[in-house]
Amino acid sequence: MTRTVEEYIYVNNTLVPISEARISPLDRGFLYGDGLFETIRVNRGRPLFLKDHLERIESSCSAFNICLDVDPIEDWYEKIERVIAANNLGDGLAAVKILVTRGTDFPEPRLPKSQKPTVIIYARSYNPPSSEKYNKGLKLITFPHRRHTKLADYKSLNYLFYLAAKEWAVGKGGDEALILNGDGTVSEGSTTNIFYVKDGKVYKPISAHYLRGIMEKQVIKFLETAGVEVKEKETYIEDLLEADELFLTNSLIEVIPAYSIDGKVLSRKGNTIRELVEMDWGRIANCL
Q1: What is the C-alpha to C-alpha distance for residues 46 and 54, in angstroms, rounded to an integer?
Q2: 287 pLDDT band (50/70/90 cuts)?
Q3: Greatest extent of the chain over all pairs of C-alpha atoms, in Å
Q4: What's the confidence (pLDDT) of residue 1?
């Protein structure tokens, strides 16, 4: 008989089996999607760029009147290490989610200041894209519904737009959705940030509202340290189609090329993507 291995999760500073975890049905995260989250890549038990993730979620919580009591980073490392160990995930790749909601004490549909948020830390194994995908690239499909909202600046539990975009892309034979702003300029991917190279220069799309990615930040820092300036530019789909290289980033995937947009195969004329894909980001996580 197969034995089911119990999974563990942190709920408000207590590590418990998932079967014993309890969250009120009146929690604002459940009622309104009133909360924020971070997804962190963990290599052999060590979370990458944890400081940056914590700074982002603390800033996001503050913007929405959620008082997240940010413990010293060592305490967060300890909690993540404990949840990784409890779930036997220390020998490979894992994904850790930190979720914060406003809690349960506020039934009115506003954003009242919360002193007692719900905080959850959850870990699961992570299977990255295949080596073929890292070599060949992802197929992008343009999502037909454009987006211009302040919420795009935050990793909010209000995630249905991005899930719908991803589902649209997969349903059309793609891997990732391309999100456009209201004026038709390029903003981001449904789960990724976008970079492209043209005539030896690296660009990223200008967008009034988009999620400023943790891996995006690391790539920019690395390139600038190497003397390569990353310029922001108003970008249309045509610019991406004419680029010499196009690549995507997020905290789990790290760096991966794009293969096509809406069925049109992209150029691959340089070595920027190859160098970034092959980078050992786990090794240099604490050096950037």
Answers
A1: 15
A2: low
A3: 61
A4: 38
